Amino acid sequence: MIIEFSCRNFRSIKEPIHFSMLASADKSLPYHLINKDFVPESIKDNILKFSCMYGDNGSGKSTFIMALAALQELIITNSVVQTKEKLVQLPHKLGKDDTTDFSILFEKNDMLFWYELWYDEENIYRECLYFWPNGRRAMIFERGGNSMKTTASFKVTQALCEDKLASNKLLLSLAAEQDPDSIIADVFDFFNKDLIFFNEADNNWVEYSAEYMESNSTFKKIVIDFLNDNHVPVKDIYAHVETLPVLESEIPDSLPEAYKKVLRTRKKKKATIKLIYKDFEVNFEEESDGVRRLIQFIGPVMHILTSDKILICDELERHLHPRVIRYLLNLFTKENLRKAQFIITTHNLDMMDSRLLRRDQIWFTYIKNAQRSTEIYRLSSLNGIRKVEKLNDNYMEDVYEKLYCNS
């Protein structure tokens, strides 16, 4: 689970921003909190299951999501970056000669970790990884340039990496590759497997759902019930998936070479889905856009819910009806849920309701006009807001932005 994330000098984000899934002292909607049984003892505060971010167009909501995705992409693709090959850096227009900085506090396999990275196109200047065994912070590694230090427990990993470390190589990615049985590999798996980004343009979620339905009859029934609950009266679904190689012609020329190498090693999946109604069948491609999106979403969502992953989506209302969004919110806030989390950006004001969300779950982006730099703040951080006030009305009247600017 994600606990905190910080970023500096990335696209419209110039100065550091700090995002947190730590809950405030608010006592409302307690089922929106992750059960303490699944939170590491070193974390004394409650952790939220769900957060959403609002903001004007162009204020940086998508940039916040992109920052998380950029950190993930750096880590999982770094193993194929060649020596002296440039890293992908997207600094603020006023920060081209500066580093981009990321840090993230997260939980994996009941252990708390903190990872920090400062880099530019050519060099990694700082990279640190800490963990909390027995509730106390301890170093796994610290790296400045091409020099590193570790504790005695990780000397074997250090020896495996020393001769291979380069100015553009992440120690995290290298160590996970060289010592796959170490705890560092668990950290790599968090970025590789636990952060799930929904991007309608390039995801394979239809194939994911089809494969899940084909192999698991219980899940297929869940999908059918889900569709029925959302006014799609299907009786059965046929689903089949075949695996095919990625063709060179399918790899965009505009991609960096490091990304192309990753794609060449992967396989693609082709799904065949038919929805069976009472008197006829419909191929997936013939179905309405809304039904296709429901099927596209449901497979990964159910897997995320049952496997403690984090779903991250930019402007969810572009993909789903508000009723379905509420349905998903209810799924993520069920009391028996373990550690799954849901982080979205949205313009959907129906959700900005104290009956649906706690104030510490609502975030806003704000663009500073002088430097066109994105800042973020949380509703629960603002003073002078009464509990009886209509949150969405205040938002439309810029009450929160004025309070933030005057704080």
Description:
This protein has 407 residues and is an alpha+beta fold. 29% of the residues lie in helices and 25% in strands. It is built from eleven helices and 16 strands. The strands form three sheets. A seven-stranded antiparallel β-sheet has the order 2-1-4-5-6-7-8. β15 (362-368) and β16 form a beta hairpin. α5 (205-215) packs across α8 and α6 crosses α8 (289-306). It is globular, with a radius of gyration of 22 Å.
Quick tags:
single chain; about 400 residues; alpha+beta; seven-stranded antiparallel β-sheet; six-stranded mixed β-sheet; 16 strands; about 25% strand
What would a concise description of this structure say?
The chain has eleven helices and 16 strands. It has 407 residues and is an alpha+beta fold.
Number of strands: 16
Q: Which structural class best describes the helix and strand composition?
A: alpha+beta
Name the shape in a single word. Answer: globular
Q: Which percent range fits the helix content?
A: 25-40%
Terminal-residue CA separation: 31 Å
Largest sheet, if any?
7 strands, antiparallel
Q: pLDDT average, as an integer?
A: 89
The strand line-up of the biggest sheet is 2-1-4-5-6-7-8
Radius of gyration: 22 Å
Mind sketching the topology for me?
Blueprint: E1 2-8, E2 17-20, E3 50-54, H1 61-77, E4 100-108, E5 111-119, E6 124-131, E7 138-144, E8 147-150, H2 155-161, H3 171-178, H4 183-194, E9 195-198, H5 205-215, H6 217-229, E10 236-245, H7 257-264, E11 267-276, E12 281-283, H8 289-306, E13 310-313, H9 322-332, E14 341-345, E15 362-368, E16 373-378, H10 391-396, H11 399-406
Parallel strand pairs: 3-14, 3-15, 9-13, 13-14
Antiparallel strand pairs: 1-2, 1-4, 4-5, 5-6, 6-7, 7-8, 10-11, 11-12, 15-16
